[in-house]
Amino acid sequence: MEIGNNTSTFGYNVDYFSRATAQQQAVTDEQGVQQDSRGLEKNEASNESNNNEQEQTSNDPTQLTNEEKAYLSELRGIDSKVRAHEAAHQSGPAAVGGANFTYTKGPDGVMYAVAGEVPVSIETGSTPQESITNLQGVIATALAPADPSPQDLSIASRARVMMMQAQQELAQEIQEKVSESSGYTENAKEQYEQNSGTQDDEEEQTSISA
Q1: DSSP 96
Q2: How many CB atoms are closer than 10 A to CB 164?
């Protein structure tokens, strides 16, 4: 096949992360309004002290607000889902490297994975059959997670197109071999008939001479 070898990635982003981020921003804004309403008359030194106290509080899960706890729970769910998704890709036969993650910091100070990707080799082989085998591996790797992302589905679709081309080439090769075999059989039959006719003529001439 004329399509060259290349490497792509399976990317995965959780759609509802933007919602979680917006929720956290709303919490932050609310806290900011409360701070402004309470601290308009405080001096700069007092504001700095309050900020330090807030940072310490945000890193302590026992001191989180209800909104922050809800956001943290969602972040943990996203992290677990992203890691499971990429682990499924890594188990596929076409994966060629480890997973790379994008992180965000939670209100508890811990970094959580919110997106990830795994590199995959999309390549053809030296024969149509080898190409088919390679591309079947790509499809299996792309669809390994229980919830393939749009990018996963796109890569699987691309691999299917390439595999169909390889299957067409394989079918053509088989047809050519069948045609060659049929031609060989026909030639052998003609040769046999010619030899049989020559032998009959010789036997007839021998009988007349006797």
Answers
A1: -
A2: 12
